[in-house]
Prior knowledge:
By secondary structure, the protein is of the alpha/beta class. The protein has 2 domains: 44 residues, Arc Repressor Mutant, subunit A (Orthogonal Bundle); 256 residues, Rossmann fold. It contains 15 helices and 10 strands. It has a 7-stranded parallel sheet with strand order 1-10-9-5-2-3-4, sandwiched between helices. A 3-stranded antiparallel sheet has the order 6-7-8. The chain is elongated and about 80 Å long.
Amino acid sequence: MGDDARLLAKVATLYYKSQLSQHEIAHRLGMSRQTAGRLLQRARDLGIVHVEIRSPLSYASELEWALEEAFGLAEAVVVQPHADTDESIKEAIGKATAEFVQRRIKDNDILALSWGTTVYQCALHMQPTRTRNVTVVELNGSLNRTSFPTHAEYVIHRMAEMLGGKPVILGAPMFVERPDIRASLLSDSRVAAAFELACQSNFALFGIGDLSEHSSPYKAGFVDEETLQRLRAEGIVGDIGGRFYDAQGNPRAPDLAERTIAVELSNLRAKALSVGLAGGLRKVDAIRGALHGKYCNVLITDEQTASALLERAMPGPTGQRRRDPGKHTTEPPR
């Protein structure tokens, strides 16, 4: 056992302190790469090697992993805002979203965006990329009824400029007064082409709204106080691009849906990347509904909101999750 322990310590020292690869260790010690890998794994199993992440971002990384496990997400990004205010949370999420887009966007992608204050922050933080033939289109109508700025055209043009792509404006309101008006607008060739492009997009980016006076649809004049109260009474918890849903993620408010110019919620499930942006404790129910509906396979949120989502994700007598993300150990790359 003494020789075995010595060999385990030697392999671990060469890998972790001398920064040699498994291939280099195998060549140096006259063994196969597979044997070197098994020895490293045994050193970890026996406690000879203990991996500890000291980065201040490690807790956020654990929350990301836990969200991905709990909700079946392709990826979660958890930010640590400088202050517990709506402005700080939106800015931090917007910056992280810009970095996500820059990392994941590819040549020939069609990126569909909803308008809103968090998506606006993403546009502000975007940096130029080297992608080619990217199209950026509106996910929903944006012409507002009040002085509240949607920044929709700015966001589309800014994102297209940073991505070296082409902007496509939908050029219609999110809600119209009657279903026949919606049908008439969608019969216009320019509006129809933009709407079809949004439906065909492979990359969608949108805010997740709650039913409150803080929401963008309310501020833009699309939804009034009476409508908000009615929707709450019907069990509706949130919206994506003006499409409303309940706590289980079921589409609701059909009377509004037939007057809405926005891609269907079911369309979001078909995207290769469907990215929901939302933070703040008042949005927890809206985010949960969107996750239950599988409308986003990527979530970008803040630490406090992530923790609240996880507390509710695993119901039980103790209220504890299946696995405590704080005890997750990240192994080094093989």
